[in-house]
Design brief:
The complex is a heterodimer. Chain A has 6 helices and no strands. By secondary structure, chain B is mainly α. Chain B has 3 helices and no strands. Classes of the chains: A mainly alpha, B mainly alpha. Chains A and B meet through helix 1, helix 3 and helix 6 of A and helix 1, helix 2 and helix 3 of B.
């Protein structure tokens, strides 16, 4: 059975070296992702420095309930993802698809909550452009441009992650992962946790600017 | 010797710590801490990130080369922020 003895490509000494190479590749990709989102965080930092009052006004119009709910959902999805990888390592084969499905559920829940939030944002005229909320300072449009771009790209990453998780779930259901071979589940987990980390920084920067004032 | 991978108990503890920290971040936003508000929130977010990287992403249990690659992205990000800040923060004429 291939899952018991993973096929080792000829350039590798053994399965462990192959798995380590795959992990290294994933971390290299994550480094590029850090810089991908880093550019947007940099733009945020510079504009917030120049238009602080507009950022405060903009941030107060974001929906804290939806934002906080989604944070908890994502943190929990990271937990279930870690448990899926753990189940694979412990060779509890039926637990792998179970925890992957839970993670998929939380990922979808995040998107549903985000959908309700986006709807509210659109009704509240928070989309930059000709119909932007006239009660907000014009520079708040910069804040909301960043809000839509950063949360939108983050949401896109969630969608890609859900696609990967779905494939992993199908493969896990077929019993393709075990304690000896589970690299794809681990790499999907690394990606999913990274997307969670991005949200941990989006949350205070978009939702919590000077809430006390 | 370090264990080969984290236990379910450790994962559960980390998850609870992450959620509690999240509510501390939320609560701190409603306290007037002056200029400390944002650095405080971001510091807690960085701690959350480190917990996720070390435990959930299992870097703590990985080879040294993985540590280096995990740190590399953040190191380059630091260079990006430092060089840009060296311009914007020194514009005395602005």
């Amino acid at each position: 059975m291939p899952e018991e003895n993973p096929i080792v490509a000829e350039q590798f000494e053994d399965a462990q070296q192959q798995a380590e190479a795959a992990h290294l590749g994933m971390w290299t990709f994550i480094a590029t992702e850090i810089l991908f989102f880093g550019g947007l965080f940099l733009a945020y930092t510079v504009y917030r420095h120049f238009y602080f009052d507009a950022f405060v006004a903009g941030s107060r119009h974001t929906d804290l309930f939806f934002g906080t709910l989604n944070s908890i959902i994502l943190l929990t999805s990271s937990f279930t993802m870690a448990l899926a990888v753990h189940a694979a390592k412990e060779n509890r084969r039926r637990a792998i698809p179970f925890f992957l499905l839970l993670t998929i559920f939380f990922g979808f829940a995040f998107l549903v909550v985000k959908g309700f939030e986006y709807h509210k944002d659109i009704v509240d005229q928070l989309v930059p452009g000709a119909h932007f909320n006239p009660q907000l300072p014009p520079a708040a449009q910069i804040f909301f441009w960043l809000y839509w771009t950063m949360t939108g790209l983050h949401g896109l990453h969630i969608c890609i992650g859900l696609g990967l998780l779905f494939v992993m779930w199908l493969r896990a259901r077929r019993g393709q992962f075990s304690s000896t071979y589970h690299t794809p589940v681990e790499l999907t987990g690394l990606y999913w946790h990274f997307v969670d980390i991005v949200w941990l920084f989006l949350y205070p920067l978009l939702y919590l600017v000077q809430r006390h004032a | 010797m370090k264990p080969l991978h984290p236990t379910r108990k450790l994962f559960t503890i980390i998850w609870l710590v992450l959620v509690v920290m999240h509510f501390v971040i939320l609560g701190s936003a409603y306290l007037n801490l002056g200029f400390v508000n944002t650095p405080f929130m971001l510091t807690l977010a960085v701690v959350q990130m480190i917990l996720i990287i070390l435990i959930f992403m299992e870097v703590r249990y990985s080879a040294r080369v993985i540590w280096m690659f995990a740190a590399a992205g953040f190191f380059w990000l630091l260079i990006l922020f430092t060089l840009v800040a060296s311009d914007y923060l020194t514009r005395g004429w602005h």
